[in-house]
Write a structure and sequence with these properties.
Radius of gyration: 24 Å
Order of helices and strands: HEHEHEHEHEEEEHHEHEHEEEHHH
Number of strands: 13
Oligomer: single chain
Number of domains: 2
CATH architecture of the largest domain: 3-Layer(aba) Sandwich
Largest sheet: 6 strands, mixed
Structural class: alpha/beta
Helix content: 40-55%
Number of helices: 12
CATH class of the largest domain: Alpha Beta
Distance between the termini: 93 Å
Length: 370
């Protein structure tokens, strides 16, 4: 081969490589263009309505940074418990009024009510950013986040080990409480507070975990015989535990306790870690759904992609729960579920949770609610 032929060959290879690189870059460029178009359309819509979880910490996680990142999109954020918001949502929809774009909250509120009512739109078509869809971005891969059986409507970005019991050890001797069965002792009667398991939410999830591990008879004796006090007020629940009115708490909000501890209160409160046959995790309030007939569809896409991005998930630290993203360090390493742990909030466990609520309604005296 002479010099001219070698030069021609080198030039041909270089042209091929350049062409291949240009071809490979086109999908990324197209995705960027698509994203920019959605953001522009969202800014034209001007606002997005998000129903989020209750409490100041959740508002900080779900709203504060988004408002700074997208100042041209007004975020109308409402943080309430699902049992308070969902009935209003359904009444509005029956009247042909579509107010909400995005629902962020517990799957135990979404799956048994909003999904069968047809109030949710398929979520995956709204996911645009490559980092959101990449398996490598998520612990156990992207698909492990689907909470509904169809893998279409409700995606969990949180996966934390739920502390079934939290204890104020200033008032409880460790020798007196070593196993879950110890809670049935007469000494613990009238000394426990629980998030109400009769309604869908954290309380029913905790009751389901207890039944899963220790059986229905244990749950009946505990909720029906130990004069437990029940509440739906998360702040009050944590405050009574911190102040020692009730030294043992079921489904106590970790973020609420953390708020008190940052103020120097309740320093000797921690999670009860007795052995359980089957440790499960949950997504807590950390699942997201796109509402059907969302009034601001492009702004909804921007919010959803932001929240599921690394940038958005870094803000989840304010809740004192762990993001499922692989590139976001756990804020609570002690609440990382063990490998292979099930998610108790997935739809496949729905019957167990409903049974737990029914059992609680059957055995809990009405007077147990303050």
């Amino acid at each position: 081969m002479d010099l001219h032929q070698r030069s021609f060959g080198s030039a041909g290879v270089a042209a091929f490589v350049l062409s291949a690189c240009m071809f490979a870059s086109r999908p990324a460029a197209a995705q960027q263009s698509s994203w920019e178009a959605v953001v522009k359309a969202a800014e034209a819509e001007g606002e997005v309505a998000v129903r989020g979880a209750p409490g100041r910490n959740y508002e900080e996680a779900l709203a504060g940074a988004f408002r700074k990142a997208y100042p041209k999109i007004k975020l109308n954020f409402t943080g309430t418990a699902g049992r308070d918001t969902i009935p209003q949502m359904l009444r509005e929809r029956e009247a042909g009024v579509y107010t909400w774009d995005v629902f962020v909250g517990g799957a135990s509120s979404v799956l048994p009510i909003l999904k069968p009512a047809g109030a949710l739109a398929p979520l995956k078509p709204a996911l645009i950013l490559p980092e959101v869809l990449a398996d490598a971005s998520w612990v156990n891969g992207f698909d492990a986040g689907w909470m509904d059986n169809e893998k279409m409507y409700n995606f969990g970005f949180d996966f934390s080990w739920d502390p079934v019991i939290t204890v104020n050890w200033d008032l409880v001797k460790r020798d007196d409480l070593k196993t879950f069965e110890d809670l049935l002792k007469p000494a613990f009667a009238r000394k426990m507070i629980a998030t109400d398991p009769r309604v869908s939410g954290e309380g029913s999830v905790t009751a389901a975990i207890l039944i899963l591990n220790f059986g229905e008879d244990f749950a009946r004796k505990l909720f029906g015989g130990q004069q437990v006090t029940f509440t739906t007020n998360r702040r009050q629940h944590a405050e009574w535990l911190v102040r020692g009115r009730y030294p043992v708490g079921f489904a106590t909000g970790a973020e609420e306790i953390a708020t008190f501890q940052r103020e120097g209160l309740g320093k000797n409160i921690s999670i009860f870690r007795a052995p359980m046959p089957r440790i499960v995790g949950s997504s807590g309030f950390g699942t997201i759904s796109l509402m059907d007939k969302a009034p601001h569809p492009n702004a909804a896409k921007v919010y959803i992609n932001w929240l599921l991005s690394r940038e958005g998930q870094m803000e989840w630290k304010h809740t004192q729960r762990n993001s499922r993203r692989a590139d976001v360090p756990p804020v609570r390493p002690d609440l990382v579920p063990p490998a292979g742990a099930d998610n108790i909030q997935k739809e496949e466990f729905l019957a167990l949770r409903e049974n737990a609520s029914k059992l609680a309604r059957d055995v809990i005296p009405t007077a147990a609610t303050p």
